Amino acid sequence: MTNTLEDNRPILEVCLTPALWDQHDPKDKNVVVIDIIRATSTIASALHHGVKKMIPVETVEEANTWLEKGYLVAGERDGIKIPHFHFGNSPFEFMGEDVRGKEIIHTTTNGTRCVLKSKGARNIVAGSFVNQDAIFDWIKKENRNTILFCAGWKDHYVMDDALFAGAVVRELADDFRIIDDSTLSAKLLYKHVRENMLRTVKQATHFKRLQRLGIENDIKFCMSNPQFDVVPIFDGVGFVKL
Ligand code: MLT
User: Ligand 1: which atom is nearest the Cα of residue 89?
Assistant: First the structure.
């Protein structure tokens, strides 16, 4: 007799900070890396605007070796552009003719590190509010156990990443199983504040930290929903358009 109560839906799990990554096993799972302000929003927007590949590297030193080889190099530490790099980490820097069709080395304080930590996963994609619907559709179509990996800030929890994770969980709650409280908490957080997300994020420490750098327009963009129809997928070297 078949057990009609058996639940075969895949599992959706949220890793709220890189400090908790060891509790998750990416093998055979899809991983959605989430760094809303700003790395994954920038990656999604850059690919949408015609950048060919965004190549994450862990350290400034590694990026320097690519710079010496003639590559375009982008990145920040503590939110501040590395002075001798071509670009920082603002989504607005990757929208013009000068970057169309280009491969760009990208190193950031938190987001790009999480991509490299996710190696071993079945697929790694970059999720953000700017490409939210494309990410919802992709996760649903894949129908596979999925980790939503929040980049946070230096191993600490940040609210904007958890909010996007919560938006995903809420959208896909019928198609996936939720089996832990991090995932449930992200969903409830999003449900509670979704009408006033920017106002809520303005109270967050991550917002205040980056606001001091004068990047409020970047933050507004990263919290907006222009619906770029792009799924940035990691091909083993960098993020390309699926
Ligand atoms: C990061 O990776 O830590 C962020 O994208 C920081 C930033 O906003 O530049």
Answer: 9
